[in-house]
Amino acid sequence: MVALTIPSEYGYVIATGIASSFFVTYLGFKVGGARKAAQIPYPYMYAEKSDAEKDAKKNVFNCTQRAHQNTLEGYPMFLTLLFAGGLGFPCVSAGAGLVFLLGKFFYAQGYSTGEPAKRMRGSFAYLGLLTLLYTSSMTAYNLIK
């Protein structure tokens, strides 16, 4: 049996997790603003393709919504890797989490211009995610060896 001790630096991991919840909320507000500007009523998730091709505001809404959805799709994995990796490598995991969030910020900012190719500005987010995959894998390995 392995005794698990939570290091005091784990507070940085928790703070990164809290920051991520504010970030996801921020993206939701951006979607709300784009929805209002494009006059897309609830409960529709996206504007119709034909409408978005004719109306720049509807296209921006679709892109803003997609950036938010993409972030939400990977959010459970991000949190799992952050909190697991942080048990063994709290400072590295917190830093990697911040890199991921910063990358997703640039991803969302680029995507929400209405030009999807600009989302690639945030592709460095995956460096943070891969680091979290490493720290969580090593934490698991160290616990079971």
Give a nutshell description of this structure.
The protein is 76% helix and 0% strand. The protein has 5 helices and no strands.
Description of the structure:
By secondary structure, the chain is mostly helical. The chain has a single domain (10-144), classed as Membrane associated eicosanoid/glutathione metabolism-like domain (Four Helix Bundle (Hemerythrin (Met), subunit A)), CATH 1.20.120.550. It is 76% helix and 0% strand. The mean pLDDT is 97.
Explain the layout of strands and helices.
Blueprint: H1 10-38, H2 49-54, H3 56-88, H4 90-111, H5 125-144
Keywords: Lipid metabolism, Lipoprotein, Lyase, Membrane, Mitochondrion, Mitochondrion outer membrane, Oxidoreductase, Palmitate, Transferase, Transmembrane, Transmembrane helix
Membrane topology: Multi-pass membrane protein
Transmembrane segments: 12-29, 78-103, 123-144
Shape: elongated
The CATH homologous superfamily is named Membrane associated eicosanoid/glutathione metabolism-like domain
- Counting DSSP E segments of at least 2 residues, the number of strands comes to 0
Query: What is the fold named in CATH at topology level?
Result: Four Helix Bundle (Hemerythrin (Met), subunit A)
Secondary-structure content class:
mainly alpha
Integer count of domains: 1
Main pleated-sheet profile = none
Low-confidence stretches: none
- For the record, give the distance between the C-alpha atoms at the N and C termini, rounded to a whole number: 10 Å
CATH level-two architecture: Up-down Bundle
- Work out the helicity level: over 70%
* Percentage of residues in strands: under 5%
Total helical segments: 5
Mean pLDDT across every amino acid position: 97
What is the H/E string?
Answer: HHHHH
Rg over CA atoms: 18 Å
Per CATH, the class reads Mainly Alpha
